[in-house]
Design goal:
This protein is an alpha/beta fold and about 160 residues long. It has one domain: Rossmann fold. It is built from five helices and seven strands, in the order βββαβαβαβαβα. A five-stranded parallel sheet has the order 4-3-5-6-7, sandwiched between helices. Strands 1-2 form a two-stranded antiparallel sheet. β1 and β2 form a beta hairpin. α2 runs parallel beside α3.
Length: about 160
């Protein structure tokens, strides 16, 4: 059964320096029900945790999973407002997960930002948008760019496509 990892941001002198403890839940804890919920899915655990910590620092509720299968299961179970989804993962790729989310009536409304590193960024970004992603974040990206994309994706309006 997939698990959800919620990491806590670690601050020193008011600056985010990493993440600390984590707790596992199969549903959103009662304390997290209010507010915008974001699921980060990336097989690079450090990247996922740092993204989640940056989101939490801006007031979002964030959870992480570390592969496509767990990410899809978590999205179906938790119904987050947004998924930040890495493209290249073992098992189900980000495109596979996005297709599944869009095909399921219970998850088709979830907004998605695809992330990826490597070549052919324009082609990948176009494919992500064609499948229904709100945006494409090339990695490595800055926390500021990610947060701007998150705010844009969460703005009221219809899903693309």
């Amino acid at each position: 059964m997939p698990h959800i990892v919620l990491d806590l941001p670690l601050f020193k002198d008011g600056r985010l320096v990493g993440v600390a403890r984590r707790a596992r839940w199969l549903a959103w804890p009662a304390a997290l029900i209010r507010g915008t919920r974001i699921l980060v899915v990336d097989d690079d655990k450090e990247t996922a945790r740092l993204m989640a910590a940056a989101l939490r620092a801006k007031g979002y509720q964030a959870a992480c999973t570390f592969d496509g299968v767990s990410g899809l299961a978590a999205a179906r179970a938790l119904l987050p407002d947004l998924v930040v989804l890495n493209l290249t993962m073992p098992g189900l790729t980000g495109f596979d997960v996005l297709r599944e989310l869009r095909a399921d009536g219970a998850t088709s409304h979830i907004k998605v930002i695809i992330t990826s590193a490597g070549a052919k960024m324009e082609v990948l970004a176009a494919a992500a948008r064609e499948l229904g992603a709100q945006d494409f974040l090339p990695l490595p990206g800055t926390p500021e760019l990610m947060l701007a994309m998150v705010e844009k994706a969460l703005a009221p309006g219809p899903l693309p496509g």
